[in-house]
Each structure stands twice: as structure tokens, then as C-alpha cells.
Write a structure and sequence with these properties.
Elements (H helix, E strand, L loop, with lengths): L1 H20 L5 E5 L6 H17 L3 E5 L6 H8 L7 E6 L5 H4 L11 E10 L3 E5 L7 H10 L3 E4 L5 H13 L4 E4 L3 H10 L4 E4 L5 H5 L3 E6 L14 H4 L8 E8 L4 H14 L3 H9 L9 H21 L6
Parallel strand pairs: 1-2, 1-3, 6-7, 6-8
Antiparallel strand pairs: 3-10, 4-10, 5-8, 5-9
Length: about 325
């Protein structure tokens, strides 16, 4: 009994010392999306502030592919010392429901640390050259002809948003999966697809330049940058897509002390004007959850999205 107590005490003492010294070396932040994408910009903005806070390098590594699961697997299987972090969008939440062999358990091998903010809606976009100018016009068009829409892969959050729209609108659209949001936008501009759902940050410039047309915003209130874009809830009552967020993760067995230290640093970073301005510009509402509350929020999001996957009849592969 005494030996076990001493072992536990040494373990706790070691964990406390590790947390006090954290981070003793550069921290790698993996992002499963391309450089310049919305998640990438958020990750870089916050990582720069974390580097200042800890007086240690926090560098971004883009590791794209498979809805961000390649980057997630790298972190899930890394040492739980807080030196390998993941920054992901809400697109990570459907992955345990659509992939049979991820190589890790999303809820136990990854530990949710802190969010960069919550965005409660997405934009429904068509090409600016399209004759369709409203959601009712689009629904009528989709009932008369075959419509192709794109998303960054089967089962991601943007795919589910479009499927939820189709079900509520009583239409059928054909899904074309791509490797990332930038490829979907390119397909929209080239006429390969007719419509897409997307989080605003990655298309702000295109909308402002008039290259794409936003038919609706799915949030609870108008998007600040585009206050004249109508709300989907007013055009299609009952349509409730999943929200979007950015979140930092660490390996599942990362000690509480390190998780709490990182959580506090991220929350502090979000108060810095140069950081908060980026989040607010992109429509993200600051979030003040603790590490434990962030994990509970993530667990709930995974469960809710699982129901959406079932409703869309997406089979795991």
C-alpha cells in the first residue's frame, strides 16, 4: 500500500513539474487544412500569440487529406506532453461516424483543449453568373433539373449542411466530393457544380468582389459582414444545420495541468485585439469554456452530428 502511494505521489509530482516547465521545447500545431484556409488563418493567428505568451515557438504544419483525419491521427498517436497539438474545425466531429478505420478513437485518443470561437451559420453560395438569385428560385430549379453540389469530402460538416437543406426543401441534389474547400470554390466558379455551403471566412473576398452570390446565411442572426444576405430560417423554416467552430486538441492522455495551462493561454490570446479582430471579422463569437467544459461540448457535438449522418443515410466506409 505504501509503495503504491509513493508511486502515485511521484507520478503526480512529475506531472506537476512537467506542467510547470511546459513548454520546454517548440510546439507543433497540426492543421488538417490548406494554408490560407479559414482554420489555418485562425490557428496561425492564435499560435503567434501563444508563442509570445509562453516565450516558445508554436509553429504550424499543414497536413491535409481525408477530412483532416491524417493530421488528427498524427496528434492522437503522439506523446501526451503537449508538444503536438491539433487545430481543427467542426469538420472533425462527423469523422468517427463516417470512417470505420480511423486508427484512433476521436473521443479518447484526442483531448479537446479550447475553442477559438463559435460560428452559428454557413453561407449558401452560387456563382455570380448564375441566373438564380433567391433560395425559392433555387429550390424550384432543383425540382426541375439535376443539380450538382460540392463539399470537401463525404460526411464533412458542409456535406451534411447541404444534405439537411435538401431534405428540408424536398429536393434531391447530387454530391460531388473534393479534397478541400478551395477546390469546391474553384469548381463553383468554373461551373462544374451549381451550389455549395461554406463557412464565411474562406470566401469573404469572393463575396465582396461579387464573384459568388450568397443566397442565404444559416445562422440565427445576420452575418456581420453581409447584413443584407437573408437568413435561411426565414426562407426555409425548421432548417437547422450544425454550427461551426475552431478547436485545439492534444493527445488523449495529456495531463490536466497542461490542458488547463493551454486552455488559459488560448482564452487569454482571444482577448488580444489583433486576435479578436480576426475572429470577429470571420463571425466567430468568443468562447470562454474551461478545458473540461470544452471536452463536454465536443462530446455533445460528436453525438449530434452522428444523428445528422444517420439522417443523411451516409454509410461508414
Amino acid at each position: 500500500m505504501l509503495r503504491a502511494f509513493i508511486s502515485l505521489l511521484l507520478l503526480l509530482t512529475g506531472a506537476t513539474a512537467q506542467a510547470q516547465q511546459y513548454p520546454a521545447s517548440p510546439v507543433r500545431v497540426l492543421v488538417g487544412f490548406a494554408a490560407g484556409s479559414g482554420p489555418d488563418i485562425q490557428a496561425r493567428t492564435i499560435a503567434q500569440q501563444l508563442a509570445t505568451h509562453f516565450n516558445q515557438s508554436f509553429y504550424i504544419e499543414n497536413k491535409t487529406g481525408a477530412n483532416g483525419t491524417i493530421a488528427a491521427r498524427t496528434v492522437a498517436t503522439a506523446q501526451p506532453d503537449g508538444l503536438n497539438l491539433l487545430f481543427s474545425s467542426s469538420s472533425i466531429s462527423p469523422t468517427p461516424h463516417i470512417y470505420k478505420n480511423l486508427g484512433y478513437d476521436t473521443l479518447t485518443d484526442l483531448r479537446a483543449i479550447a475553442t477559438s470561437g463559435i460560428l452559428d451559420g454557413m453561407l449558401m453560395l452560387v456563382d455570380a453568373k448564375s441566373p438564380i438569385k433567391t433560395v425559392p428560385e433555387f429550390i424550384k430549379h432543383a425540382k426541375e433539373t439535376r443539380v450538382l453540389y460540392g463539399s470537401p469530402g463525404v460526411g464533412n460538416i458542409l456535406h451534411l449542411a447541404a444534405e439537411a437543406f435538401s431534405i428540408k426543401a424536398g429536393i434531391t441534389m447530387q454530391h460531388v466530393p473534393y479534397k478541400g474547400s478551395s477546390e469546391v470554390v474553384t469548381a463553383l466558379l468554373s461551373g462544374s457544380i451549381e451550389v455549395m455551403f461554406v463557412t464565411p471566412p474562406s470566401v469573404l473576398g469572393l463575396v465582396k468582389e461579387g464573384r459568388v452570390r450568397a443566397l442565404a446565411f444559416t445562422g440565427t442572426k445576420p452575418f456581420a459582414e453581409f447584413p443584407n444576405v437573408p437568413l435561411m430560417k426565414d426562407l426555409l423554416p425548421g432548417y437547422q444545420p450544425m454550427g461551426s467552430w475552431g478547436m485545439f486538441f492534444a493527445p488523449g492522455k495529456t495531463p490536466d495541468a497542461i490542458a488547463d495551462k493551454l486552455n488559459a493561454a488560448v482564452r487569454e490570446a482571444l482577448q488580444v485585439p489583433s486576435v479578436s479582430s480576426v475572429m470577429q471579422r470571420d463571425g466567430y463569437i468568443p468562447d470562454n469554456r474551461s478545458a473540461a467544459e470544452t471536452q463536454a461540448f465536443f462530446n455533445k457535438e460528436v453525438a449530434v452530428v452522428g444523428e445528422a449522418v444517420k439522417a443523411a443515410k451516409i454509410e461508414p466506409n
